[in-house]
Amino acid sequence: MTTLLSSLGWDEALASAYPLLLADPDHRPGRVLRADRGVCTVLTETGVDRASLAGSVLRAASADPVRLPCAGDWVIVRRWPDDRTTLEVVLPRRTVIVRRTSDKDSSGQVLAANIDVAAVVEPMDSGPDLGRIERFLALGWESGAVPIVVLTKSDVSTDPEAVAESVRAIAPGVEVVIVSADQGVGLDKLRPLIAHGRTLGLLGRSGAGKSTLVNALAGATVMTTQGVRRVDGKGRHTTTYRALIPIPGGGAVLDTPGVRGVGLLDGSDGLDKAFEDVVDLIDLCRFSDCAHEGEPGCAVRAALADGDLAPRRWESWQRLQKELAFEARRKDVRTRAEEKERWKRLTQHSRGTSRP
């Protein structure tokens, strides 16, 4: 195990995934720093390689785009006699954040792989968007990583603690960290999250301050940053790709591009964790099939009436539940269509081979 890769999380469990391949001197492990179309920048024990995708990887991705390598993935690359490098295998992911794309077939897109902590980054300058935070937290919980909320630009807020309290109210079981990268506030709480072998993933919209935060944690300018537009205060798109940045003396930070929409694809467990307070109330209802529309003994309606549950929070829960149910129905229809097409091809092949 190399010191360089072990600082990013390489261990014996990963090394044992493909022992025969790794025993070949032409093959070596690495971690994807950046993934472009058909080419990945991979950090190995010998340095940084540009690796094209092997046919087996492309075939797997054609069946499921989520299997395309992404920043943060552990991979096996091969060096050929003509000095070409190919990415041969994507090792099993320990955690993965997947959002729904906006295309017609509603496929998944990997935002980050193999992160230990998923930090939802939200700026204080324009007031936190609670609905967006809830969506990102659902993705974070579903990924298997530990989600936290990082409130940036606290130096421009008149009452950062009050803002943090409003976020804590919709983030049960989640640590909320107040940060000002420019003034160094709160960075001491984030540094343990990028200790040796650990990776911190940053999720949020453009202008949230993710790249500035990466630079502050790295102690150098490693990501380009831009200010907000004076007209509307919205952030410009600075990072347009996913990038894993090794931190000197520690682990790594994975910076993701700002995303406008945070679509949920298949994350009922993550949604339940993000709305644990609502789920607990539903469990207290007298009837297990309570529709929460006026039935006797409805704990949800009682909490809404008493002010213990905010109407916005309940409406957000209902909206995201409907979104997941809709995606589940679309997935079921797509699966049936694909199965029908598969049987059609098998039948045609069988008829062709049975002819004299």
Automatic annotation (TrEMBL):
Taxonomic superkingdom: Bacteria
Top-rank EC class of the record's enzyme: hydrolase
Cofactor binding summary note: Binds 1 zinc ion per subunit.
Co-factor requirement: Zn(2+)
Entry protein name: Small ribosomal subunit biogenesis GTPase RsgA
Keywords attached to this entry: Cytoplasm, GTP-binding, Hydrolase, Metal-binding, Nucleotide-binding, Ribosome biogenesis, RNA-binding, rRNA-binding, Zinc
Organism taxonomic ancestry: Bacteria, Bacillati, Actinomycetota, Actinomycetes, Micromonosporales
Subunit composition and interactions: Monomer. Associates with 30S ribosomal subunit, binds 16S rRNA.
Entry's EC annotation: 3.6.1.-
Binding site for Zn(2+): 285, 290, 292, 298
